[in-house]
Amino acid sequence: MRILVSDDVQVKGIEALRANGYDVDVKKNLDEDALVKIIGDYDGLITRSMTHVTRRVIEAAKNLKVVGRAGVGVDSIDIKAATEHGIVVVNTPESNTLAATEHTVAMIMAITRHIPQAHNSLMAGHWDRKTFTGIQLQNKTMGIIGVGRIGSRIAKRMQAMEMRTIGYDPYIPKERGEQLGVELVDLDTLLKEADYITMHTPLTKETRGMIGKDEIAKMKDGVRVINVSRGAVLDINALAEALKSGHVAGAAIDVFPTEPLTKDINPFIGMDNVVITPHLGASTVEAQEGVSVDVASGVMAALRGEPVPTAVNMAPIPKQVYARIKPYFDLVERMGILGTAISNGAVTGVNVEYIGDLADVDTGLLTMATLKGILNPILQDSVNFVNAPDLAKARRMQVQETKKNSDPEFVDAIRLILQTEGGAVHTVVGTLFNKGEGKIVKIDDYRVDFDPNGYLLLIPHRNQPNMIGQIATILGQAGINITGMQVGETAGSEESIMALAVKEDIPSDILLKLRGIDGLLDIKVIHCEPQE
Ligand code: NAD
Fold first, then answer.
1. What is the CATH number of domain 2-94+286-303?
2. Which of 141, 221, 238, 418 has most Cβ atoms within 10 angstroms of its Cβ?
Protein backbone atom coordinates (compact mmCIF):
# COMPACT_ATOMS: atom_id res chain seq x y z
CA MET A 1 0.00 0.00 0.00
CA ARG A 2 1.19 3.54 -0.75
CA ILE A 3 1.25 6.42 1.70
CA LEU A 4 1.92 10.06 0.88
CA VAL A 5 3.46 12.29 3.55
CA SER A 6 2.79 15.86 2.42
CA ASP A 7 4.16 17.95 5.33
CA ASP A 8 7.13 17.91 7.72
CA VAL A 9 6.68 14.81 9.83
CA GLN A 10 9.42 13.55 12.14
CA VAL A 11 11.28 10.60 10.69
CA LYS A 12 10.43 7.94 13.33
CA GLY A 13 6.83 7.60 12.13
CA ILE A 14 7.93 7.33 8.50
CA GLU A 15 10.45 4.63 9.46
CA ALA A 16 7.71 2.73 11.29
CA LEU A 17 5.54 2.79 8.17
CA ARG A 18 8.39 1.54 5.96
CA ALA A 19 9.35 -1.13 8.48
CA ASN A 20 5.78 -2.44 8.21
CA GLY A 21 6.01 -2.76 4.44
CA TYR A 22 4.28 0.44 3.37
CA ASP A 23 5.61 2.30 0.37
CA VAL A 24 6.03 5.92 1.61
CA ASP A 25 6.58 9.02 -0.55
CA VAL A 26 7.44 12.35 1.09
CA LYS A 27 6.35 15.23 -1.18
CA LYS A 28 5.99 18.62 0.47
CA ASN A 29 4.59 22.02 -0.56
CA LEU A 30 1.90 20.59 -2.84
CA ASP A 31 -0.92 22.97 -3.68
CA GLU A 32 -4.48 21.74 -4.24
CA ASP A 33 -3.98 21.14 -7.99
CA ALA A 34 -0.75 19.23 -7.46
CA LEU A 35 -2.32 17.11 -4.73
CA VAL A 36 -5.41 16.38 -6.83
CA LYS A 37 -3.16 15.13 -9.63
CA ILE A 38 -1.32 12.54 -7.56
CA ILE A 39 -3.63 11.61 -4.68
CA GLY A 40 -5.39 8.89 -6.71
CA ASP A 41 -2.26 6.72 -6.35
CA TYR A 42 -2.33 6.60 -2.56
CA ASP A 43 -4.11 4.54 0.12
CA GLY A 44 -3.06 6.83 2.97
CA LEU A 45 -2.16 10.52 3.40
CA ILE A 46 -0.31 12.05 6.34
CA THR A 47 -0.34 15.82 6.84
CA ARG A 48 0.31 18.56 9.36
CA SER A 49 -1.56 21.86 9.09
CA MET A 50 0.07 23.04 5.83
CA THR A 51 -1.74 20.64 3.48
CA HIS A 52 -5.38 21.44 2.84
CA VAL A 53 -7.34 18.27 2.31
CA THR A 54 -10.31 19.80 0.54
CA ARG A 55 -13.43 18.13 -0.88
CA ARG A 56 -11.82 18.35 -4.32
CA VAL A 57 -8.81 16.42 -3.05
CA ILE A 58 -11.05 13.82 -1.39
CA GLU A 59 -13.11 13.37 -4.55
CA ALA A 60 -9.95 12.77 -6.58
CA ALA A 61 -8.62 10.30 -4.01
CA LYS A 62 -10.05 7.12 -5.50
CA ASN A 63 -7.94 4.74 -3.38
CA LEU A 64 -7.64 6.76 -0.20
CA LYS A 65 -8.75 5.02 3.01
CA VAL A 66 -7.21 7.19 5.70
CA VAL A 67 -5.95 10.71 6.34
CA GLY A 68 -3.60 11.08 9.32
CA ARG A 69 -3.09 14.48 10.93
CA ALA A 70 0.18 14.67 12.85
CA GLY A 71 -1.15 16.99 15.58
CA VAL A 72 -4.51 17.95 17.04
CA GLY A 73 -6.38 20.57 14.97
CA VAL A 74 -8.19 19.17 11.95
CA ASP A 75 -9.47 22.44 10.47
CA SER A 76 -7.34 21.82 7.38
CA ILE A 77 -9.24 18.62 6.52
CA ASP A 78 -12.78 18.49 5.14
CA ILE A 79 -14.03 15.88 7.63
CA LYS A 80 -17.56 15.81 6.21
CA ALA A 81 -16.29 15.00 2.72
CA ALA A 82 -13.93 12.36 4.14
CA THR A 83 -16.75 10.69 6.12
CA GLU A 84 -19.04 10.67 3.07
CA HIS A 85 -16.31 8.88 1.11
CA GLY A 86 -15.68 6.34 3.88
CA ILE A 87 -12.23 7.80 4.59
CA VAL A 88 -11.13 7.62 8.21
CA VAL A 89 -9.42 10.73 9.61
CA VAL A 90 -7.08 10.18 12.57
CA ASN A 91 -5.16 12.67 14.69
CA THR A 92 -2.86 12.56 17.73
CA PRO A 93 -4.72 14.30 20.56
CA GLU A 94 -2.56 13.16 23.46
CA SER A 95 1.00 13.37 22.22
CA ASN A 96 1.48 16.99 23.39
CA THR A 97 0.09 16.60 26.88
CA LEU A 98 3.30 15.91 28.75
CA ALA A 99 5.31 18.43 26.78
CA ALA A 100 2.81 21.20 27.61
CA THR A 101 2.65 20.08 31.24
CA GLU A 102 6.42 20.18 31.65
CA HIS A 103 6.69 23.53 29.89
CA THR A 104 4.16 24.91 32.37
CA VAL A 105 6.26 23.59 35.24
CA ALA A 106 9.38 25.17 33.72
CA MET A 107 7.54 28.49 33.39
CA ILE A 108 6.35 28.33 37.02
CA MET A 109 9.89 27.72 38.22
CA ALA A 110 11.32 30.43 35.95
CA ILE A 111 9.07 33.16 37.39
CA THR A 112 9.45 31.88 40.94
CA ARG A 113 13.27 32.11 40.93
CA HIS A 114 13.80 34.75 38.17
CA ILE A 115 15.99 32.32 36.25
CA PRO A 116 16.01 34.11 32.83
CA GLN A 117 16.57 37.54 34.42
CA ALA A 118 19.43 36.29 36.64
CA HIS A 119 20.98 34.50 33.67
CA ASN A 120 20.84 37.65 31.51
CA SER A 121 22.31 39.75 34.30
CA LEU A 122 25.25 37.39 34.77
CA MET A 123 25.79 37.14 31.03
CA ALA A 124 25.97 40.95 30.97
CA GLY A 125 28.85 40.80 33.44
CA HIS A 126 27.01 41.53 36.72
CA TRP A 127 27.23 39.47 39.90
CA ASP A 128 23.93 40.49 41.49
CA ARG A 129 22.66 38.30 44.30
CA LYS A 130 20.10 40.75 45.73
CA THR A 131 17.72 41.58 42.91
CA PHE A 132 16.72 38.01 42.16
CA THR A 133 15.44 36.76 45.51
CA GLY A 134 12.67 34.29 44.79
CA ILE A 135 9.91 32.67 46.82
CA GLN A 136 9.25 29.09 47.88
CA LEU A 137 6.44 26.98 46.42
CA GLN A 138 5.87 24.85 49.50
CA ASN A 139 2.57 25.67 51.25
CA LYS A 140 1.53 28.14 48.54
CA THR A 141 -1.74 27.64 46.66
CA MET A 142 -1.77 26.72 42.98
CA GLY A 143 -5.07 27.63 41.26
CA ILE A 144 -5.71 25.56 38.14
CA ILE A 145 -8.35 26.74 35.69
CA GLY A 146 -9.40 23.72 33.59
CA VAL A 147 -8.58 20.40 35.22
CA GLY A 148 -8.35 18.19 32.13
CA ARG A 149 -5.41 16.25 30.73
CA ILE A 150 -2.81 18.96 31.33
CA GLY A 151 -4.43 20.64 34.36
CA SER A 152 -4.62 17.35 36.26
CA ARG A 153 -0.94 16.60 35.54
CA ILE A 154 0.04 20.07 36.74
CA ALA A 155 -1.84 19.32 39.98
CA LYS A 156 0.16 16.13 40.49
CA ARG A 157 3.47 17.88 39.90
CA MET A 158 2.67 20.86 42.10
CA GLN A 159 1.49 18.53 44.86
CA ALA A 160 4.99 17.04 44.75
CA MET A 161 6.24 20.55 45.56
CA GLU A 162 3.95 20.41 48.60
CA MET A 163 1.58 23.02 47.28
CA ARG A 164 -2.15 23.14 47.97
CA THR A 165 -3.96 22.65 44.66
CA ILE A 166 -7.35 24.18 43.98
CA GLY A 167 -9.17 24.05 40.67
CA TYR A 168 -11.97 25.68 38.75
CA ASP A 169 -13.60 23.37 36.23
CA PRO A 170 -17.40 23.41 36.33
CA TYR A 171 -17.57 20.41 34.02
CA ILE A 172 -15.93 17.80 36.18
CA PRO A 173 -17.61 16.34 39.25
CA LYS A 174 -16.30 16.91 42.79
CA GLU A 175 -15.42 13.22 42.98
CA ARG A 176 -12.91 13.58 40.13
CA GLY A 177 -11.35 16.55 41.93
CA GLU A 178 -11.06 14.49 45.12
CA GLN A 179 -9.38 11.70 43.20
CA LEU A 180 -6.81 14.20 41.89
CA GLY A 181 -6.33 15.92 45.24
CA VAL A 182 -7.68 19.13 43.74
CA GLU A 183 -10.21 21.06 45.77
CA LEU A 184 -12.79 22.26 43.24
CA VAL A 185 -13.95 25.81 43.91
CA ASP A 186 -15.79 28.54 42.03
CA LEU A 187 -13.81 30.98 39.90
CA ASP A 188 -14.05 33.86 42.38
CA THR A 189 -12.70 31.72 45.22
CA LEU A 190 -9.83 30.53 43.06
CA LEU A 191 -8.97 34.09 42.02
CA LYS A 192 -9.02 35.23 45.66
CA GLU A 193 -7.12 32.33 47.23
CA ALA A 194 -4.45 31.32 44.75
CA ASP A 195 -0.81 32.47 44.90
CA TYR A 196 -0.33 31.08 41.39
CA ILE A 197 -3.00 30.85 38.70
CA THR A 198 -2.42 28.63 35.69
CA MET A 199 -4.83 28.23 32.76
CA HIS A 200 -5.53 24.92 31.02
CA THR A 201 -8.89 25.23 29.28
CA PRO A 202 -9.59 24.93 25.57
CA LEU A 203 -10.67 28.07 23.75
CA THR A 204 -14.47 28.08 23.79
CA LYS A 205 -17.15 30.74 23.71
CA GLU A 206 -17.05 30.70 27.51
CA THR A 207 -13.29 30.76 28.00
CA ARG A 208 -12.49 33.46 25.40
CA GLY A 209 -11.49 36.49 27.47
CA MET A 210 -12.28 34.58 30.66
CA ILE A 211 -9.42 36.26 32.56
CA GLY A 212 -9.56 40.00 31.97
CA LYS A 213 -9.24 43.21 33.95
CA ASP A 214 -12.08 42.42 36.41
CA GLU A 215 -10.83 38.92 37.16
CA ILE A 216 -7.25 40.14 37.62
CA ALA A 217 -8.52 42.79 40.06
CA LYS A 218 -10.00 39.99 42.20
CA MET A 219 -6.65 38.16 42.43
CA LYS A 220 -4.43 38.29 45.51
CA ASP A 221 -1.76 40.97 45.65
CA GLY A 222 1.50 39.42 44.53
CA VAL A 223 -0.18 36.64 42.52
CA ARG A 224 1.71 34.94 39.66
CA VAL A 225 -0.13 34.11 36.43
CA ILE A 226 0.76 31.42 33.89
CA ASN A 227 -0.84 30.67 30.53
CA VAL A 228 0.28 27.77 28.36
CA SER A 229 -3.26 27.02 27.04
CA ARG A 230 -4.72 29.29 24.36
CA GLY A 231 -3.84 32.95 23.92
CA ALA A 232 -7.33 34.42 23.80
CA VAL A 233 -8.29 33.01 27.22
CA LEU A 234 -6.31 35.82 28.88
CA ASP A 235 -6.31 39.58 28.26
CA ILE A 236 -2.55 40.21 28.03
CA ASN A 237 -2.93 43.99 28.00
CA ALA A 238 -4.83 43.92 31.30
CA LEU A 239 -2.17 41.56 32.65
CA ALA A 240 0.63 43.91 31.57
CA GLU A 241 -1.09 46.79 33.43
CA ALA A 242 -1.36 44.68 36.58
CA LEU A 243 2.32 43.69 36.28
CA LYS A 244 3.27 47.36 35.97
CA SER A 245 1.28 48.29 39.07
CA GLY A 246 2.84 45.38 40.98
CA HIS A 247 -0.55 43.80 41.78
CA VAL A 248 0.60 40.77 39.76
CA ALA A 249 4.15 39.89 40.84
CA GLY A 250 5.07 37.73 37.89
CA ALA A 251 3.69 36.14 34.74
CA ALA A 252 4.75 33.40 32.36
CA ILE A 253 3.03 33.26 28.99
CA ASP A 254 3.52 30.84 26.10
CA VAL A 255 0.45 31.58 23.97
CA PHE A 256 -0.92 34.86 22.67
CA PRO A 257 -4.19 36.13 21.21
CA THR A 258 -2.32 36.96 17.97
CA GLU A 259 0.60 34.80 16.95
CA PRO A 260 3.31 35.42 16.09
CA LEU A 261 3.52 38.07 18.81
CA THR A 262 5.34 40.92 17.10
CA LYS A 263 7.10 43.78 18.86
CA ASP A 264 4.36 46.32 18.11
CA ILE A 265 1.64 44.24 19.84
CA ASN A 266 3.79 42.87 22.67
CA PRO A 267 2.72 44.67 25.87
CA PHE A 268 5.52 43.07 27.91
CA ILE A 269 8.51 44.68 26.18
CA GLY A 270 10.91 46.07 28.78
CA MET A 271 9.25 44.33 31.75
CA ASP A 272 11.44 42.31 34.05
CA ASN A 273 8.74 40.36 35.89
CA VAL A 274 7.56 38.38 32.86
CA VAL A 275 8.81 35.29 31.07
CA ILE A 276 7.43 34.75 27.58
CA THR A 277 8.07 31.95 25.12
CA PRO A 278 6.94 31.68 21.47
CA HIS A 279 4.32 28.88 21.78
CA LEU A 280 6.84 26.22 22.81
CA GLY A 281 4.44 24.11 24.88
CA ALA A 282 4.54 21.16 22.49
CA SER A 283 8.15 21.60 21.40
CA THR A 284 10.01 18.62 22.74
CA VAL A 285 11.82 15.93 20.85
CA GLU A 286 9.58 13.31 22.47
CA ALA A 287 6.36 15.15 21.56
CA GLN A 288 7.44 15.58 17.92
CA GLU A 289 8.43 11.91 17.79
CA GLY A 290 5.25 10.94 19.62
CA VAL A 291 3.12 12.81 17.09
CA SER A 292 4.81 11.07 14.15
CA VAL A 293 4.76 7.59 15.72
CA ASP A 294 1.13 7.99 16.89
CA VAL A 295 -0.09 9.19 13.51
CA ALA A 296 1.73 6.33 11.78
CA SER A 297 0.17 3.73 14.06
CA GLY A 298 -3.30 5.28 13.61
CA VAL A 299 -2.90 5.23 9.84
CA MET A 300 -1.66 1.61 9.85
CA ALA A 301 -4.56 0.48 12.07
CA ALA A 302 -7.04 2.16 9.73
CA LEU A 303 -5.42 0.52 6.69
CA ARG A 304 -5.70 -2.87 8.41
CA GLY A 305 -9.40 -2.11 8.93
CA GLU A 306 -9.11 -2.06 12.71
CA PRO A 307 -10.98 0.40 14.92
CA VAL A 308 -8.77 3.44 15.58
CA PRO A 309 -9.13 5.06 19.00
CA THR A 310 -7.81 8.37 17.66
CA ALA A 311 -10.19 8.53 14.70
CA VAL A 312 -11.90 11.89 14.40
CA ASN A 313 -14.75 10.70 12.22
CA MET A 314 -16.58 7.48 12.17
CA ALA A 315 -15.44 4.24 10.67
CA PRO A 316 -17.68 3.03 7.83
CA ILE A 317 -21.02 1.79 9.24
CA PRO A 318 -23.05 -1.12 7.78
CA LYS A 319 -25.35 0.30 5.11
CA GLN A 320 -28.65 -0.94 6.58
CA VAL A 321 -27.86 0.46 10.04
CA TYR A 322 -26.68 3.75 8.56
CA ALA A 323 -29.84 4.18 6.51
CA ARG A 324 -32.03 3.88 9.62
CA ILE A 325 -30.02 6.14 11.91
CA LYS A 326 -28.57 8.69 9.47
CA PRO A 327 -31.44 11.19 9.62
CA TYR A 328 -31.12 11.37 13.41
CA PHE A 329 -27.37 11.82 13.52
CA ASP A 330 -27.13 15.54 13.24
CA LEU A 331 -30.18 16.02 15.48
CA VAL A 332 -28.80 14.08 18.46
CA GLU A 333 -25.49 15.90 18.36
CA ARG A 334 -27.30 19.24 18.45
CA MET A 335 -29.54 17.95 21.26
CA GLY A 336 -26.35 17.20 23.21
CA ILE A 337 -25.07 20.75 22.69
CA LEU A 338 -28.43 22.13 23.90
CA GLY A 339 -28.40 19.75 26.86
CA THR A 340 -25.02 21.04 28.04
CA ALA A 341 -26.16 24.63 27.63
CA ILE A 342 -29.22 24.18 29.85
CA SER A 343 -27.43 22.03 32.44
CA ASN A 344 -25.21 24.69 34.04
CA GLY A 345 -22.27 22.60 35.20
CA ALA A 346 -21.15 19.04 35.61
CA VAL A 347 -23.37 16.40 34.02
CA THR A 348 -23.20 13.15 35.97
CA GLY A 349 -25.82 11.05 34.19
CA VAL A 350 -26.94 10.78 30.56
CA ASN A 351 -29.93 8.73 29.51
CA VAL A 352 -30.86 8.64 25.84
CA GLU A 353 -34.39 7.32 25.36
CA TYR A 354 -35.22 6.06 21.87
CA ILE A 355 -38.96 6.09 21.41
CA GLY A 356 -40.94 4.35 18.65
CA ASP A 357 -39.15 4.17 15.30
CA LEU A 358 -35.70 3.64 16.80
CA ALA A 359 -36.63 1.23 19.58
CA ASP A 360 -35.53 -1.83 17.58
CA VAL A 361 -32.36 -0.40 15.99
CA ASP A 362 -28.74 -0.52 17.17
CA THR A 363 -28.51 3.05 18.43
CA GLY A 364 -24.97 2.88 19.88
CA LEU A 365 -23.66 5.29 17.25
CA LEU A 366 -26.44 7.77 17.97
CA THR A 367 -25.62 7.71 21.67
CA MET A 368 -21.99 8.32 20.72
CA ALA A 369 -23.00 11.34 18.64
CA THR A 370 -25.14 12.59 21.55
CA LEU A 371 -22.13 12.36 23.88
CA LYS A 372 -19.99 14.17 21.34
CA GLY A 373 -22.59 16.96 21.33
CA ILE A 374 -22.65 17.12 25.13
CA LEU A 375 -18.86 17.33 25.41
CA ASN A 376 -18.21 19.49 22.36
CA PRO A 377 -18.97 22.90 23.93
CA ILE A 378 -16.63 22.01 26.83
CA LEU A 379 -13.74 20.22 25.12
CA GLN A 380 -13.98 21.58 21.55
CA ASP A 381 -11.96 19.60 19.04
CA SER A 382 -10.43 17.19 21.53
CA VAL A 383 -13.72 15.26 21.50
CA ASN A 384 -14.78 13.25 18.46
CA PHE A 385 -17.29 10.52 17.62
CA VAL A 386 -14.90 7.80 18.56
CA ASN A 387 -13.47 9.02 21.85
CA ALA A 388 -16.68 10.62 23.20
CA PRO A 389 -17.77 7.53 25.22
CA ASP A 390 -14.31 7.17 26.80
CA LEU A 391 -14.14 10.85 27.64
CA ALA A 392 -17.63 10.67 29.18
CA LYS A 393 -16.49 7.73 31.27
CA ALA A 394 -13.30 9.50 32.37
CA ARG A 395 -15.45 12.45 33.41
CA ARG A 396 -17.62 10.10 35.52
CA MET A 397 -20.77 10.40 33.43
CA GLN A 398 -23.08 7.40 33.76
CA VAL A 399 -24.39 6.75 30.27
CA GLN A 400 -27.50 4.74 29.58
CA GLU A 401 -29.72 3.95 26.61
CA THR A 402 -33.42 3.20 26.99
CA LYS A 403 -35.64 1.79 24.22
CA LYS A 404 -39.40 2.33 24.32
CA ASN A 405 -41.94 1.19 21.77
CA SER A 406 -44.45 3.67 23.12
CA ASP A 407 -44.50 6.71 25.31
CA PRO A 408 -47.35 8.78 26.78
CA GLU A 409 -46.10 11.96 25.05
CA PHE A 410 -44.42 11.13 21.73
CA VAL A 411 -44.69 8.56 18.95
CA ASP A 412 -41.21 8.69 17.36
CA ALA A 413 -38.67 10.75 19.26
CA ILE A 414 -35.42 10.84 21.16
CA ARG A 415 -35.51 12.10 24.72
CA LEU A 416 -32.19 13.14 26.25
CA ILE A 417 -32.25 13.24 30.04
CA LEU A 418 -29.31 14.83 31.82
CA GLN A 419 -28.68 14.44 35.51
CA THR A 420 -26.49 17.21 36.93
CA GLU A 421 -24.21 17.18 39.92
CA GLY A 422 -26.40 19.74 41.67
CA GLY A 423 -29.30 17.23 41.48
CA ALA A 424 -31.26 19.01 38.73
CA VAL A 425 -32.57 16.94 35.83
CA HIS A 426 -32.83 18.48 32.36
CA THR A 427 -34.60 17.13 29.31
CA VAL A 428 -34.35 17.80 25.59
CA VAL A 429 -36.70 15.99 23.20
CA GLY A 430 -36.06 15.94 19.47
CA THR A 431 -37.84 14.40 16.54
CA LEU A 432 -37.84 14.44 12.76
CA PHE A 433 -40.39 16.25 10.67
CA ASN A 434 -40.90 15.52 6.96
CA LYS A 435 -38.73 12.42 7.44
CA GLY A 436 -35.49 14.28 7.85
CA GLU A 437 -35.85 17.73 9.33
CA GLY A 438 -34.64 17.72 12.93
CA LYS A 439 -36.75 19.65 15.43
CA ILE A 440 -36.57 20.22 19.15
CA VAL A 441 -40.04 19.67 20.56
CA LYS A 442 -39.52 19.89 24.29
CA ILE A 443 -37.03 21.51 26.65
CA ASP A 444 -37.49 20.63 30.32
CA ASP A 445 -41.23 21.13 30.89
CA TYR A 446 -41.75 23.44 27.92
CA ARG A 447 -43.30 22.36 24.64
CA VAL A 448 -41.38 24.04 21.80
CA ASP A 449 -40.87 23.55 18.09
CA PHE A 450 -37.68 24.88 16.53
CA ASP A 451 -34.76 23.89 14.32
CA PRO A 452 -31.56 23.49 16.33
CA ASN A 453 -29.38 25.46 13.90
CA GLY A 454 -27.12 28.52 14.11
CA TYR A 455 -27.43 30.63 17.25
CA LEU A 456 -30.35 30.10 19.58
CA LEU A 457 -31.50 32.29 22.43
CA LEU A 458 -33.42 30.47 25.13
CA ILE A 459 -35.29 32.92 27.29
CA PRO A 460 -37.45 31.73 30.17
CA HIS A 461 -39.77 34.58 31.18
CA ARG A 462 -42.89 35.40 33.13
CA ASN A 463 -46.13 35.36 31.17
CA GLN A 464 -46.83 39.08 30.93
CA PRO A 465 -47.69 41.44 28.08
CA ASN A 466 -45.10 42.77 25.66
CA MET A 467 -42.23 40.40 26.52
CA ILE A 468 -41.77 39.45 22.85
CA GLY A 469 -42.06 43.08 21.74
CA GLN A 470 -39.35 44.32 24.09
CA ILE A 471 -36.90 41.57 23.15
CA ALA A 472 -37.53 41.97 19.43
CA THR A 473 -37.09 45.76 19.69
CA ILE A 474 -33.68 45.50 21.37
CA LEU A 475 -32.46 42.93 18.85
CA GLY A 476 -33.92 44.90 15.92
CA GLN A 477 -32.25 48.14 17.04
CA ALA A 478 -28.94 46.27 17.25
CA GLY A 479 -29.42 45.12 13.63
CA ILE A 480 -29.76 41.45 14.66
CA ASN A 481 -32.01 39.50 12.37
CA ILE A 482 -34.44 37.07 14.04
CA THR A 483 -34.90 34.10 11.73
CA GLY A 484 -37.31 32.11 13.88
CA MET A 485 -39.27 32.46 17.07
CA GLN A 486 -41.28 30.16 19.23
CA VAL A 487 -42.84 30.45 22.65
CA GLY A 488 -43.17 27.24 24.62
CA GLU A 489 -45.65 26.99 27.43
CA THR A 490 -46.43 24.60 30.25
CA ALA A 491 -50.07 24.14 31.15
CA GLY A 492 -50.93 25.95 34.38
CA SER A 493 -47.53 27.67 34.69
CA GLU A 494 -46.91 31.40 35.00
CA GLU A 495 -43.69 31.01 33.08
CA SER A 496 -42.93 30.37 29.41
CA ILE A 497 -39.78 29.90 27.40
CA MET A 498 -38.98 31.80 24.24
CA ALA A 499 -36.68 30.21 21.66
CA LEU A 500 -35.29 32.75 19.20
CA ALA A 501 -33.13 31.79 16.26
CA VAL A 502 -30.66 34.46 15.12
CA LYS A 503 -28.03 34.46 12.40
CA GLU A 504 -25.16 35.82 14.48
CA ASP A 505 -23.79 35.83 18.01
CA ILE A 506 -25.20 38.44 20.42
CA PRO A 507 -22.70 41.09 21.60
CA SER A 508 -22.37 41.36 25.37
CA ASP A 509 -23.78 44.92 25.57
CA ILE A 510 -26.98 43.75 23.84
CA LEU A 511 -27.22 40.78 26.21
CA LEU A 512 -26.93 43.18 29.11
CA LYS A 513 -29.81 45.26 27.72
CA LEU A 514 -31.94 42.13 27.29
CA ARG A 515 -31.17 41.02 30.83
CA GLY A 516 -32.54 44.35 32.07
CA ILE A 517 -36.08 43.55 30.82
CA ASP A 518 -38.49 43.09 33.71
CA GLY A 519 -39.94 39.57 33.75
CA LEU A 520 -37.04 37.97 31.90
CA LEU A 521 -35.78 35.14 34.12
CA ASP A 522 -32.65 34.05 32.27
CA ILE A 523 -31.09 34.18 28.84
CA LYS A 524 -28.85 31.63 27.22
CA VAL A 525 -27.09 32.05 23.90
CA ILE A 526 -26.36 28.67 22.40
CA HIS A 527 -24.25 28.04 19.34
CA CYS A 528 -25.90 24.88 18.07
CA GLU A 529 -23.34 24.05 15.39
CA PRO A 530 -21.16 21.05 16.22
CA GLN A 531 -17.39 21.51 15.92
CA GLU A 532 -15.50 18.95 13.91
P1 NAD B 1 -8.60 18.90 27.98
O2 NAD B 1 -9.72 18.97 27.00
O3 NAD B 1 -8.08 17.57 28.41
O4 NAD B 1 -8.99 19.71 29.31
C5 NAD B 1 -9.61 20.97 29.30
C6 NAD B 1 -10.39 21.14 30.60
O7 NAD B 1 -10.96 22.46 30.61
C8 NAD B 1 -11.57 20.17 30.72
O9 NAD B 1 -11.52 19.45 31.94
C10 NAD B 1 -12.80 21.07 30.66
O11 NAD B 1 -13.86 20.60 31.49
C12 NAD B 1 -12.25 22.37 31.19
N13 NAD B 1 -13.09 23.51 30.82
C14 NAD B 1 -13.83 23.69 29.69
N15 NAD B 1 -14.48 24.87 29.75
C16 NAD B 1 -14.15 25.43 30.95
C17 NAD B 1 -14.52 26.63 31.59
N18 NAD B 1 -15.37 27.50 31.00
N19 NAD B 1 -14.02 26.89 32.81
C20 NAD B 1 -13.15 26.02 33.41
N21 NAD B 1 -12.79 24.85 32.87
C22 NAD B 1 -13.27 24.56 31.64
O23 NAD B 1 -7.43 19.80 27.31
P24 NAD B 1 -5.86 19.65 27.55
O25 NAD B 1 -5.32 18.61 26.64
O26 NAD B 1 -5.61 19.59 29.01
O27 NAD B 1 -5.37 21.07 26.96
C28 NAD B 1 -5.60 22.28 27.68
C29 NAD B 1 -5.23 23.47 26.80
O30 NAD B 1 -3.84 23.45 26.51
C31 NAD B 1 -5.93 23.49 25.45
O32 NAD B 1 -6.35 24.81 25.20
C33 NAD B 1 -4.84 23.11 24.47
O34 NAD B 1 -5.08 23.67 23.18
C35 NAD B 1 -3.65 23.75 25.13
N36 NAD B 1 -2.35 23.23 24.71
C37 NAD B 1 -1.34 24.13 24.48
C38 NAD B 1 -0.09 23.68 24.10
C39 NAD B 1 1.00 24.69 23.83
O40 NAD B 1 1.83 24.44 22.97
N41 NAD B 1 1.09 25.77 24.56
C42 NAD B 1 0.15 22.31 23.93
C43 NAD B 1 -0.87 21.41 24.22
C44 NAD B 1 -2.13 21.88 24.60
1. 3.40.50.720
2. 418
